[in-house]
Amino acid sequence: DVKVTQSSRYLVKRTGEKVFLECVQDMDHENMFWYRQDPGLGLRLIYFSYDVKMKEKGDIPEGYSVSREKKERFSLILESASTNQTSMYLCASSSGAYNEQFFGPGTRLTVL
Amino acid sequence: ELKVEQNPLFLSMQEGKNYTIYCNYSTTSDRLYWYRQDPGKSLESLFVLLSNGAVKQEGRLMASLDTKARLSTLHITAAVHDLSATYFCGETSGSRLTFGEGTQLTVNP
Question: What is the pLDDT of residue B65?
């Protein structure tokens, strides 16, 4: 079974802090994604990556950056956290002809 | 721009009843995905529909795809409480998925 893990289930940070959210997948998938999910706004794509050291902006990249130094790991970085970045963050990976995305358990981030 | 619309967005139904969730999408994609999300949890893949006319069934859930109408349906048969969750459909462009808003299903005893 595909396994996607995220470094924390719950995280509390202060405004202005630099925040790292880590995602690791164990199925050698090429594609990895970061979403945020907010009530009433659904799932919104922040960034995605097709390959190591490659990244593409999603629909809401402002205030975020990403890093993919190894195929299995995709990091989301909040350079200076703000309260409007309080959200559930979901990582996913996919590969192959079907491009079915497999999701990690999510990180609920609260910025105070 | 990809656009995926689900309806209804909220569905409250009694155990034992049948109902259908509709998913309209915007492209000529021949692939459509259904996911389930339990409260406070992540998304779990339910179905991948890969061609026009595709039908897949798992337990009380059956999904179908009509690419000509750009419509997918998720049919619930004889609902049980355990099916209470939010259901998302998604269409693909390349490797990206665009999701609908989700249908929050509540099955009442």
Answer: 94
